[in-house]
Structure formats: C-alpha cells, structure tokens
Model the fold of this input.
Amino acid sequence: MPDIQPTEAQLRMARLRLSVFVRSEALATADELGFGWRASTVTPSGLEGLTEELRSCHVSGLPFRVLRDFSADTIFNSASTNHAMRFWHDTRHVWIGADFSTEAELEVASCHLARARAEGFGPGSLEYALLLADTVGQTLYVARTKRFVVRQRQFALDCVRFDFDRAIEREVVRALVEGSAS
Done:
C-alpha cells in the first residue's frame, strides 16, 4: 500500500466510487433489517448498547442512531455517507458479535474489505487502499494512542502515501500541534 501518489482527480473519483459503494452497502443492510439510520449526538456504546439499539429498532421501526460527530473530514464524499458507513460498521459488530477490542475491530474491517473485493475494489485499487486506511489504519491508531483520528481524510491519505506507522506518527504530530491530542 505505501508509496501510492494519487492525483487530485484520481482521489476525487476514488472517494466518489467508494462513497457510492458504502452507501449501497448501508442501504442493503437497511433493507435487510427493515430500518435505516440517523445521525445523532447521543448513540449507543459498546456491543451491548449496539445490540440493544438493533433490537429496539426492530421493534419500533425507528432508525438506528449513529454518531454525527467527526464526519466532516473523512474519505467519503459527504458527512451523510460517513453516517452510512457507521451504520454498516455498527450493525456488523452486532451481527458477528464483535466487541471493540483491536482484534474484533480488525474482524469487522475484514468484513468491509471482503465486500469491497467482491464488488471489484481489489487490493490494488485506490478505493481499497482508502477503505483499508479508514478501517484498519484507524483501528491501529486507536490501539496505539487510545484516541480517535480527528483528521480522518489526511490520515487516510498518509496511510496510502506512506504506511500505517508513518501515518500514525504524522497524525500524532498533527494532534499535538492542533491541540487535539488530549
């Protein structure tokens, strides 16, 4: 994955194609479950919270709550697509019984990456590299720093252009400089 230097046009197209793919996966999940999602500042936490939210949504038909925050600076083409990704991601946690440990997050990431491969976004594609950065890269960042990636788009680009270790290092420096490392 390291040493990919996409042009702005290539990056824009890859983000668009990845966003269409993610939204499609979220909509297919919503069709299967019988309810959609909505962005909220109050969301369930932990696997038990997600499981209870899923059960509640099944009974009520109300949309599943996903975190609204930290959605403006992502690899996707809009905040609403990031919300769709969170829905797809959170429901996978419940379906496979994955908690929020590093290992379980990587298992959920592998589900997303397998679907991407099945839809033609293979390991050599920029779309795959961006999704890998968003899922695996961010998981590794949280495992090492115990913090959430704030500048997600730049972090993903660093993962693509360099490697996970260098991307994590650069995000830590950005967080320190910007004062968001606490």
